[in-house]
Give the backbone structure.
Amino acid sequence: MKKTGIFYGSTTGTTENVASLIAGKLGIAAADVHDVSKLTSGLAASYDVLILGTSTWGDGELQDDWYDGIKVLKGTDLTGKTIALFGCGDSESYPDTFCDGMGILFEDLKDCGCRFIGAVDASEYTYSSSVAETDGKFVGLAIDDVNESDRTERRITAWTDALKAGLE
């Protein structure tokens, strides 16, 4: 598999935990799993594949550390890089902004010369609106560990299996 780094923004620990689960499924070493607050252009450039994870806060906003992280990524040459996204949200309390943070990352990076992989069928989720959803698919893996924790493991396994196939 290509050199892969996982970068996450986590306030309560949920997104960090999901990042660790994804790393375990993909065989990515702990040294290649990074808190986005420590992201540098050189670190991002050192990976062929970037897996980016964020939670959604407030009225559909990015996790706080991503505001600086996205600036770093936009200042990095991402041409030819592969990016996969995952997002954590609460579809019951915030059904109209479910995993919007993941959609914001996609929108901010989609014109940076990178290739996105890992879109997920949105039909098995319950929510009313999400900027992370286009044409019936999320731009990455959506996780609702608050209301659907019984589906988290299965969703991560299916997504990482699909990523493996797309990265070989």
Q: What stands out?
A: The helical segments are 14-26, 41-45, 66-74, 100-109, 149-167. The first strand starts at residue 4 and ends at 8. The beta strands are 4-8, 33-35, 49-57, 61-62, 82-88, 115-117, 120-121, 133-134, 137-138, 141-143. DSSP finds five helices and ten strands in the chain.
